[in-house]
Write a structure and sequence with these properties.
The chain has about 90 residues and is of the alpha+beta class. Helices cover about 15% and strands about 35% of the residues.
């Protein structure tokens, strides 16, 4: 795997710093950016995230779109971050 960059985030070192949310959204902090992902929190507890809502970063980076390659890396980073957490995140 090549160590290349897209925008300001290095794919090999992409790290989730935290996740917070509501019943219908999660806000994921990755490096110095935040992304809002829509979905649904269940009683399991689990959050079912809508992959199609991963399109762009939150302000002030809202003009930076997220391509399919970066979307896959974001999903992998979130799954890795939540593997030992109480609330699991599943992507649909």
């Amino acid at each position: 795997m090549n160590n290349y960059r897209s925008g300001d985030i290095n794919f090999l070192t992409m790290r989730v710093n935290g996740i917070r949310g509501t019943r219908s959204h999660i806000y994921v902090d990755i490096e110095d950016k935040t992304i809002c992902i829509t979905g649904e929190l269940t009683l399991t507890p689990a959050f079912y995230a809508d992959i199609s809502s991963i399109k762009h970063w939150e302000s002030p980076f809202e003009n930076k779109t997220i391509d399919e390659e970066m979307k896959e890396q974001i999903i992998k980073a979130i799954i890795d971050y939540t593997k030992d957490k109480e609330v699991k995140i599943y992507f649909e």
